[in-house]
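Changelog entry: the Cytochrome P450 record was regenerated in this release. Current contents:
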Amino acid sequence: MNFITLLLFLLPITFLLLKRSRKQEKRLPPGSPGIPLVGQSLSLLWAMRANSAERWLENRVKKYGPISKLSLFGKPTVFLYGQAANKLVFSGDGSFMTNQQTQSIRMILGDRCLLELTGQDHKRVRSALVSFLKPESLKMYVGKIDEEVRNHLEMQWEGKQQVKVLPLMKRLTFDIVCSLLFGVERGARRDQYLQHFQKMIAGMWSIPVNLPFTRFNNSLKASAKVQKMLKQLLHEKRLELQKGASSHQDLISCLLSIRGENDEELISDDEIIHNVMLIMVAGYDTSSVLITFIVRLLANNSTVYEAVLKEQDEIAKSKSSGQLLTWEDLAKMKYTWKMAMETLRMYPPIFGGFRKTIKDIEFGGYIIPKGWQIFWATAMTHMDNSIFNEPEKFDPARFENQAAIPPYCFVPFGGGYRICPGYELAKIETLITIHHLVTLFKWKLCCTEKFRRDPMPVPDKGLPIQLTPKQLLS
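Regenerated structure tokens:
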């Protein structure tokens, strides 16, 4: 009798659960997960390297609409497109969605970087990083960055008739990162960091199959070497601080100096190392790609070039010989930054990103199940002609009135509480570099060059340009 009573009690519950399960299954977004484990990963990576990733995603939107399911990097994934999708991704408070990088990125950069942290851990570490990267703090480093740019141009550009822009910009941004983040000056140690670092980032967007001689395997080995070098650097910085060194000399010293209520170090060694590596990657790739495409666009658009040159010449004329740029000088570079933002709109260094659902989410009439990846792509709204008129046209005037741009449509640095903390550093690097390039040189492209995404947009030949020093034109 008890068994029958229990059965009669459980049957309606079981029926409701099965009904709900079938209902959720029917409400999953359209699309196919593809081949097990691989899914659409190789197809997307090939499209990125062929510079057809936007078209690849546009075809998905045409076939399935603004929300569709697929499988990327071994995870069930939902691709979202449009302003509403960007708002969902960027406006949350972390209660229903968290940052989720691919397994390859997580294993290479570590699990204590901002991309992986959530809740109070994310807030604590982000606050520590922002204490160094906020504008009020970066003001004191403008001269230091200016010195790095001047030295780089003197050593790598002056006296050259032809240069390849991208590899030189990568070296410049790496040198700036080494100076500001590590306090490591030029020399063999910087060169060793660069060697391991370049191998580390080569396999960040790859299928995480750890077999010998694969890009992923080589990246993991290089990551271990970088982390070992950073551990040694942390030891040295602690000793320097004990001897009275300034906590503002570099990012590592700043993070080591942040203390809790009981005078304990608030940020762990792993958190410092993993986040320094994250900022290394972000600073090395994003700023160098942005500056490279600015050089490319200025070469093709004489009107914009002349407007930038006029603004920068006025600033240069206000300086005495050898006088370093200041924060106040950067504030005068308004048109130059509008031009940079238009470059970011057309060629965003970050193609997209991933989030992970921590509960079921209803969006666009579908269920995105708990534990699934959400994939979003920056360029999709940037090149939407319903948002930006004639999106293929390079027009810095779009940013005369930024308030007129609909929210969650221009997102090169992300948004919300996870907006890139290095935004201001990227801005400073870019403005200082462009100032010196346009006031010292005139250039033209050596060839019509295509580019691919790997995953950043990369000119196939590194963007070779022919240089003419300004003094030879006068």
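The chain has 19 helices and twelve strands.
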